[in-house]
Amino acid sequence: MRNILIDCDPGHDDALAIIVALANKQKLNLLGVTTIGGNQTLAKVTKNAKNILSFLQADIPLAAGQSGPLVKPLKTAPEAHGDSGMDGPYFDGSDYPLSNMNGVDFLYKKMIESKENITLVALGPLTNLALLIKNHPEVKEKIECITLMGGGIDHGNQTALAEFNIYVDPEAAEIVFQSGLPIIMAGLDVTEKAEITVAEINSLQGKGKVSQLAYDLLSFYNKSGQQFGFINSPIHDLCAVAYLLEPDIFKGKLANIHVITDYSLARGLTYGDFRKIAAEPKNTLVLEEVDRQKFVELLIASLTYLDEKI
Ligand code: RIB
Ligand code: CA
Predict the structure, then answer these.
(1) Which of 36, 74, 137, 278 is most buried, with most CB under 10 Å away?
(2) Atom of ligand 1 nearest to the CA of 237
């Protein structure tokens, strides 16, 4: 059993990652969810997190984190996720309790309260995690590892060189990657291969409540992805959770990662030193390959399990 905390900016793919984490309680003990301004404003992504957790009848503490990045103003992604940040599904508006603590203080409290180590799962910009590490370096010894969706070694999606989560807050990302903590980086190199096909999306219809929610999420996300040239839908954030459940369906290489934080065209680029004798410790496992079939099977099995529960 692995203790985890999820920091996210729901976000269609964030929502699917939370769903799969909750469907695999025998392996993942989800201690809490925090939100970060990213795909949409903090208020909108927090509302989306409430909707997902309420829909799943979860009993998981939720706290809202930072509204934006450390230095520059927040740049949201309505073109990808819609005005709500999670367009597509209908939610009945049931409320869900929100902690009155800031997400960073919440993460800190969970870390010091726990007698066991905790894995941090980061699915959005890394501002909350950077502030946790900077403000409370003593928690590093309690962090089992950080598994994150972010970056890309040879390309980006927000710019030609930078992936969205990193581009929103490059300074925070540099703090996290250079923290010395063991990191699993699910960057675009692997997440763009972790795609679900239109036929697989359509197969989710009429199977059950949670599969239908996944259909509603993915059918919007698939249409939205077409403007960027995608035919199928990469479920980026799910890779960060899927690795914890089935690491053997992934392949990767160790590297030391720096993030470009200047204001050049390379801002937000994740630079990987993979050399045998790298200049600095290779603390990051950069995922490069995934067994797509097994990845989708994990999602569908998780949905089917929750269909029978909810
Ligand atoms: O680049 C993909 C990432 O940006 C995902 O985390 C998605 O949710 C958006 O936040
Ligand atoms: Ca996300």
Answers:
(1) 36
(2) 6
Confidence at residue 119, expressed as pLDDT on a 0 to 100 scale:
98
Distance between Cα 276 and ligand 2 center (Å): 32
- Give residue ranges with CB within 6 A of ligand 1: 9, 11, 13-14, 38-39, 123-124, 149, 157, 163-165, 236-237
pLDDT of residue 270: 98
Q: Tell me the ligand closest to 189's alpha carbon.
A: 1
Closest ligand by atom to 235 CA = 1
Ligand 1, atom 8, residue with closest C-alpha: 11
CATH number at residue 241: 3.90.245.10
Catalytic residue positions, numbered: 236
* Predicted structure pTM score: 0.98
Spans in the chain with pLDDT lower than 70 = none
CA of 183 to the centre of ligand 2 (A): 17
Q: Which atom of ligand 1 is nearest to the CA of 10?
A: 8
In terms of residue numbers, what domain contains 244? 2-309
Kindly report the three-state secondary structure assignment for every residue of the chain: CEEEEEEECCCHHHHHHHHHHHHCCCCEEEEEEEECCCCCCHHHHHHHHHHHHHHCCCCCCEEECCCCCCCCCCCCCHHHHCCCCCCCCCCCCCCCCCCCCCHHHHHHHHHHHCCCCEEEEECCCCHHHHHHHHHCHHHHHHEEEEEEECCCCCCCCCCCCCCHHHHHCHHHHHHHHCCCCCEEEECHHHHCCCEECHHHHHCCCCCCHHHHHHHHHHHHHHHHHHCCCCCCEECCCHHHHHHHHCHHHEEEEEEEEEECCCCCCCCCCEEEECCCCCCCCCCEEEEEEECHHHHHHHHHHHHHHHHHHC
Number of domains in the chain: 1
CA–centroid distance, residue 17 to ligand 2 (Å): 9
pLDDT tens-digit map of 132-141: 999 999 999 9
How confident is the model at residue 94, as a pLDDT? Answer: 87
